Amino acid sequence: DEKPLSWALCPIGDIIPPFEGAPPAAQPGDPARENQPTVIEGDEQSGTRATPQIQGNVALIRGDQFLGTDSLNFDTEAGTYVAEGNVRYQDSGIRIVADRAEGNQNTDTHTITNIRYQLVDRRGNGGADSIALTGPLGQMHHSTYSTCDPSQRMWDLRAQRIDVDSDEGFGVARNAVLRMGRFPVLYVPWFKFPVDDRRQTGLLYPSVSMSGRNGFDYRQPIYLNLAPNYDMTLMPRWMSKRGLLLDSEFRYLYSGGRGIFNAAYMPNDSLRDRDRGRFQFSGYHNLSGTWQARANLGWVSDERYIEDFANRLAGISASYLQSTAGVYGVGQYWNAGAMAEHFQLTDYTLTDANLPYSRLPRVYVNWEQPLGQWLDAGVWAEAVHFDHSERPGGSRLDVKPYVSARLAGPAWYITPTLAWRYTAYQLESGLAEQLGGDASPSRNLPITTLDAGVYFDRHTTIGDEAYLHTLEPRLFYLNAPYREQDGLPLFDTRPFTFSWGQLFRDNRYSGADRQTDANQLTVALSTRLIREADGREKLSASLGQIRYFEDSRVVAPGELPVQEGKSAWVADGNYVINDRWTLGASYQWDPKFRREDLASVRARYLWPGDGVANLSYRYRRDLLEQADFSFLYPINPTWSVVGRYYHSLADDKLLEAIGGVQWDSCCLAVRVVARRYVRNRAGELDNAVQVEFVLKGLGSAGQDTERTLRRAILGYHRDDLYLVPPSNTTPDPDDYDPNLIP
Amino acid sequence: KASDRNQPMTLDSDQSDCNQAEANARCVFTGNVVITQGTLDIRADRAEIVQRNGEIDQVLLTGKQASMKQQMDDGTTMNARADRIVFEPRKDLLTLTGNFQVESPRGSNSGQKMVYNLGTGQMQSGGDGTRVRTVIQPRNAAPQPGSGN
Amino acid sequence: CGFHLRDKLALPADTPPVQVISTTPFSELVTILERNLRNAGATVAPRRQDMTVDAEAKMARLEVLSERWGDLPIAIDEQGRAQEFSLRYATVFTFRLADGRELVPQQVVELSRDYVSPPEDATGTSTEREILADELRREMAASILRRIDSVVRADLARAAAAPETPPPAASPDATPPPSP
After folding, report:
1. What is d(CA A394, CA A311) in angstroms, rounded to the nearest whole number?
2. Interface predicted TM-score (ipTM)
3. Which among A36, A50, A79 has CB closest to B121?
């Protein structure tokens, strides 16, 4: 989903405007040209009926073809014609102005000499000594091609011969010289370029770049449109300092599912003196109305693969590859799943010991059913076998039946819930010894919660819009007895990141290996401004805190015990000031130690015309303090500057800095971007200067800076700001990817 | 067709009025004039035949589109219509003026004035500020009946 | 200061049932939306398969047009390793009345929850992410129904003020456990 090419800076008129009296472009349903009558009009006609000569503003029209000329000799039997003087030819793909044209209507072949032409679709235009048209094929000799307006010829491609196939939507230039202004910049013996936007087999744009690590880096994607529902892209890549790599992608689609295979192989990468490889599969298959199979698998040949092939900060952030595959079901009152997962290390500064246990396999079911008018009953059940390459594993069964009463009125609700949690293990001997000898420890305890809240409303108007202003106080009481759990392993459990959600959870830990003991009450208040016209939230703010009536005795290794008293205050806020400004903030203040646990502020401003500025500050105690400022400022339609400054205040270290300028014009965009970013796990920074010439309509020579900028400056392509870009809220079935569901 | 020339010519109409000067007779026929000679078939509201020393010199046909149909040597029929048609057999010339329309299976011509030499097939039309128009049917498609205006 | 307890939503008697549809197959959000609507007193239409076409025509429709998940690193450490992630969940929804009129215009709701995941020990990241996902689905259902509720109230208030147009039919009260 490239940022769409903009022709906004081009002069409004066509290079060769449509000819007066010419027929409209061919519509899909029209009959083929050969089956359409030929109508010839002129001021004067002579010759015989079989071989008429027509003079004076002659116009020949057949289907979508138009030929205007001063004089036309025509032979109705053979179908041949000769047109001389002020020759103008037009069909749905091309418009031509020339001196002379001759051809044969029956075989639809035409030869036009000394021409100027313009492709109807993408502003491609130029001149040629001659063009031979055979149906959709056009063969231009000693021709030029560019999408620039003749008045400002930024670049053009001169070729001894260019073959344009408007049916296939492709042009092939032979012995072509690419000229920027007057200077020849690139000689290409053979060069294929699409002339319209359709998906076609053939070469996509090559990408050329330079870097200290790879040297000269040339990628030439080849797209194979094998069938309407499956296609393949091969990407041979040559790096002068490392060697040859073949990357490939195969996509398939059918009514019940779809999938994508990616595979890459590089024999003897001289950067590491070994073979390198990568494999990835992501796909799903609908088994029935309620069951679906999904898989998301990944493998790399070695721990340095991701870092050695990434060229951006975001590219190297992952430390492990998670592969999962499973069958999942959703019913009216339940959802369930059976899955397996496996982790592969992709960070050479860590070892396999850092990897989490793999759940191999895991079966779970979640059931909740209303019982009568006021009660809900449900059960959470999960059975998992944990496996690890370096540590002994085991199996765990966790069952939590619960019943809750839904007492509610229009302005209040009280939801008491009683749950019983039973968890049992079957540990491998090595782990059992480490944890005190019991190979099948278990734990069971009751958990009671009470969730209660009240709604206060009032109607106000801001500006001239009516808003519903709500005030929602809420209480959440949790009580669970202490159970000794030192004998239980930590397979998939760790303390939750303290947040607003934590105020209303019945456990302080993410997995079943630890169930907190608690006697605590959460007091929270939320307020909202909801626009009454369409329900959009202009402001939402919330403040909450937990009051621990007793110490919590369950502690995970390396965790501070939770003592009686007050938790940190949690405050969140989101304010949409207008359609330009949005502000967001989260803050946690711990009254016990009188210190901040979290402070994060986000501000975003949208300039008219694709401009955007993001400013964010993030502090998390003992972990990070970072500031990130990024912007794309369109000075005017031609010049825009981009920048990013992402700095870690805690380590006083720059993480990424970008400075760049973009010059845009009708047919040429030039981007110069200087970047300094953390390139590897040693924290070394790498400088890279990327220069990219985007020959609009022909391709971009030079590194693909756009992708870098889009990741670095969230919003460079405004649609990246949102998961669902506002520019297309129309849902696209193609972006249904169930493998993203956590 | 060329063989039409030596076929008998028949002529009938509602009224006829001839002055009797034999050698250079001038006759005027009015009302549903039909002249046939072999494959030649002429229809008009009014026909004026001028003879010069026993030979038909000129046939003037007018009507709410006088029409003339004849089979050509290649077997196709040619059908011409115009407000006024002048036929000069000795010069083998046909002059059509006023919204003429000449049709054959291969296509049609239309315009305001056309001079058509039946012998050589030569035709001359337009040149008087009006537009001429030729429609040629596609080679393989079945000729649509009376396509175009 | 003008705040008053939320009053009962006076829904007209002929309020048709609400049908919840999602273009995403196997959507757990639909299950939660249906439960919240039932708890709020609305009659929820059965799932599409077991219903005649004309019965379906007389339904109010809550359409979830798209559901998307995203899990982006939002903090990178000095060695370029991701330390903190933001799990994002976005839906596009619209609410139509039985006569097809769009009571709540098509709009996007995007929610996110941040979580720390130390690169050197990722134990528990998967379970935290799965629980955050469940919470995001419940929060999304609450947010969608809150928006519908406030638009319906405004519509009913306007209809009450100008009684000649019959008040629209739709679901009443917001759901019990709303959290922002």
Report:
1. 40
2. 0.72
3. A50
